[in-house]
Specification:
Elements: H1 3-15, E1 20-21, H2 46-49, E2 59-67, E3 83-92, H3 99-104, H4 109-123, E4 131-136, H5 146-158, H6 164-169, E5 171-174, E6 180-182, E7 195-205, E8 228-242, E9 245-259, H7 260-268, H8 280-290, H9 298-316, H10 325-343, H11 350-360, H12 366-369, H13 371-403, E10 406-407, E11 410-411, E12 415-416, H14 419-429, H15 433-438, E13 441-442, H16 445-466, H17 476-496, E14 502-507, E15 512-517, H18 524-539, E16 544-550, H19 551-556, E17 570-576, E18 586-589, E19 604-613, E20 616-623
Parallel strand pairs: 1-2, 4-5, 12-13
Antiparallel strand pairs: 2-3, 3-9, 4-7, 6-7, 7-8, 8-9, 10-11, 14-15, 15-20, 16-17, 17-18, 19-20
Helix pairs in contact: 4-5, 8-11, 9-10, 9-11, 9-13, 10-13, 11-13, 13-14, 14-16, 17-18
Length: 624
């Protein structure tokens, strides 16, 4: 069974149990300034987990492309990746009380645990003796999740291949750092009003890995050596923090996530994810290109394979290397990968990029059409990195000349540089410790690490404020921005023609960013005209409505937006001006949120325009 086979089985399994397939959200979230990337399938569903009705109903299923930048430095072992595909299923409230209700409404622990075991053991045919379970051990705030433990015991005891004695030995309890979920982490860190809950996880045990000295027997919660691989995680969102502690939520949700790459490794019995059929073609072509076996330099091969694969997916999403936000992460990925590639003597990356794109297009077919842009993005950054290395070298050598450590244009053997100079080369040109050593420079690694740590802590304070929790920003100012983009979109199409469409947007409390397809720079007169039209609609104080309808019906009434023919069910349509499509000023597909009346936006002013190339332009504006 390959990766695509697992995806098809998973979707079919839950569709047969009343779930509606929802789209894979963009890897770079639209209209969500609180996070750089979609890092979990639940991330786009936060409003619905908090109670907003979902147009597809209470039971949902999907496969979500995810990227986690916090795992970059972890890549190099046998199991961590930055880009991955997350299988997800959700129940949005209303736990079932009987079979008939279960078919129509939500469900909770009993159904989720039973289905999870059935999918893993019957559909994927994973060996039952390799599966271990963890539940929440409780803490001073929330009690032990005895309910999940008892359900697991019941499920396992009914399995004829597992006796009751064995069942209890397969279930372990994890603390708040292992088996608890909230946006803010452990219960003590949660603010008042935030929701969270215990989770139950399933681990696959590999017998070809020996426990390290740090591991405590066959307890997955105390094992970090790679012998146990987490393959499934069901979160039961049932608590809300209050002034008095934690109270039970009236709407209890199920949020399941299972990494496709890890599930495939378990199905194929590969304790090293990079030996599974997702990565083996990539590893093989790296071996061919470099002339070195994977087994000789496993860490470098893993970094190249993962980071280049993630780079292909980010470039496919329109990200280009830069010094800020998503572009900075892509640059960091590619340069870390290039460090390993160059250290192993790699020359031409083209075949590696082609292989990755070919493999990824099996599940993301649009990659084939974007291949030339993706390849050029990566190869251009490779060239920029070479220039950065030369720039960093010149910076260091100029300093060495001042210090008298360089004569005749040559460095005398290994030269020691200060941690300050090493950090300066890193900050100015992106030269990390590996690159500096390869150029013949020695330095105090502990001092450099401390300087990097101090810099990261300063950066993290700003990032934590901006990207706290990955929850879509629903502040008053950003809600105004959402409505303003609809007014702007309509005004642009009226001015330039119906062939113009929104190609992306990003809304923060400070500004609105709007991308659209157009070749020419807008004139001052056109900018003024757009501002006047949008402000006129604001002053008219038009009402804003939304309704759910099928995709065909939405298209029939003239709604514009990003529709995907593969998905059925209802979409959310916002109308500005009237609920009657024939009288509405703007009709657009959108998840929201929006103001109730346009006058709440107060004012609109365009402050900047940019050329993005490839027939795309970007406008920046402020509201209110």
């Amino acid at each position: 069974m390959n990766a695509k086979g697992i995806i098809l089985k998973y979707i079919d399994f839950f569709e047969r149990r009343g779930h509606k397939l929802i789209p894979n959200s963009p890897l770079v979230p639209e209209n969500d300034p609180t996070t750089l990337f979609t890092s979990a399938g639940m991330q786009p569903l936060i409003p619905y987990l908090l109670g907003e009705p979902h147009p597809q109903g209470r039971r949902l299923v999907n496969v979500q492309n995810c990227f986690r930048s916090q795992d970059i430095d972890e890549v190099g072992d046998n199991r961590h990746t930055t880009f991955f595909r997350m299988l997800g299923n959700w129940s949005l409230g209303d736990p079932a009380r009987n079979a008939s209700q279960c078919e129509a409404g939500g469900y909770f622990k009993r159904e989720e645990i039973g289905w999870l075991w059935e999918f893993l053991t019957r559909e994927l045919r994973l060996p039952k003796d390799k599966l271990y379970i963890t539940v929440f051990a409780g803490d001073g705030n929330v009690p032990y999740d005895k309910e999940s433990e008892e359900i697991w015991k019941e499920v396992l005891s009914k399995d004829p291949s597992i006796n009751s004695g064995q069942a209890e030995k397969r279930i372990f309890a994890g603390d708040v750092t292992k088996n608890w979920w909230s946006r803010s982490g452990i219960p003590d860190n949660m603010p008042k009003g935030e929701v969270g809950g215990p989770d139950t996880e399933v681990y696959f045990k590999f017998d070809d890995i020996d426990h390290s000295d740090k591991c405590d027997g066959d307890d997955p919660t105390k094992c970090e050596c790679g012998k146990f691989l987490e393959i499934a995680n069901s979160v039961f969102i049932e608590y809300q923090k209050t002034d008095d502690g934690f109270s039970q939520l009236p709407q209890k949700n199920v949020d399941f996530g299972g990494g496709l790459e890890r599930l495939l490794a378990a199905v194929e019995g590969k304790s090293d994810i990079f030996e599974s059929s997702i990565f083996s073609p990539i590893i093989s072509v790296i071996e061919q290109s470099i002339g070195i076996k994977y087994s000789e330099f496993e860490k470098d091969f893993r970094i190249i394979a993962d980071h280049m694969r993630a780079g292909v997916m980010l470039a496919n999403s329109g990200v280009t290397p830069s010094n800020k936000e998503q572009g900075y992460i892509l640059r960091r990925l590619l340069r870390r990968s290039l460090d390993s590639w160059n250290a192993l003597g790699g020359k031409d990356l083209t075949l590696v990029i082609e292989t990755i794109a070919s493999e990824c297009s099996k599940t993301d077919p649009e990659i084939s059409g974007n291949f030339e842009r993706i390849k050029n993005t990566i190869l251009e950054e490779e060239g920029n990195y070479k220039k950065a290395v030369e720039g960093g070298k010149k910076l260091i050598e100029k300093e060495l000349e001042r210090e008298g450590k360089k004569t005749g244009g040559e460095i005398r053997g290994k030269v020691e540089i200060s941690a300050d100079l090493a950090f300066k080369s890193l900050a100015s040109f992106g030269l990390g410790p590996t690159q500096l050593r390869s150029l013949g420079y020695e330095f105090n690694e502990q001092e450099l690490a401390e300087k990097i740590k101090q810099h990261q802590e300063v950066s993290k304070k700003g990032a934590d404020k901006k990207f706290a929790g990955g929850l879509a920003d629903q502040s008053e100012q950003t809600i105004k921005g959402h409505t303003a983009t609809h007014l702007l979109h309509k005004a642009i199409r009226d001015m330039l023609g119906s062939q113009v469409h929104q190609k992306g947007s990003n809304i923060t409390a400070e500004r609105v960013r709007f991308d659209f397809n157009w070749d020419d720079k807008l004139t001052d007169g056109q900018i003024k005209q757009l501002e006047e039209v949008v402000n006129k609609k604001i002053d008219e104080n038009l009402p804003v409505f939304y309704k759910f309808m099928s995709t065909p019906d939405a298209k029939k009434i003239g709604a514009i937006g990003l529709f995907d023919e593969k998905y059925e069910g209802e979409v959310k349509i916002y109308m500005i001006g009237s609920e009657d499509p024939d009288k509405a000023y703007s009709i657009e597909f959108c998840g929201g949120p929006h103001v109730a009346w346009t006058r709440e936006v107060k004012s609109f002013k365009i402050i900047k325009q940019e050329n993005l190339g490839r027939g795309l332009r970007r406008l920046y504006a402020v509201v209110g």
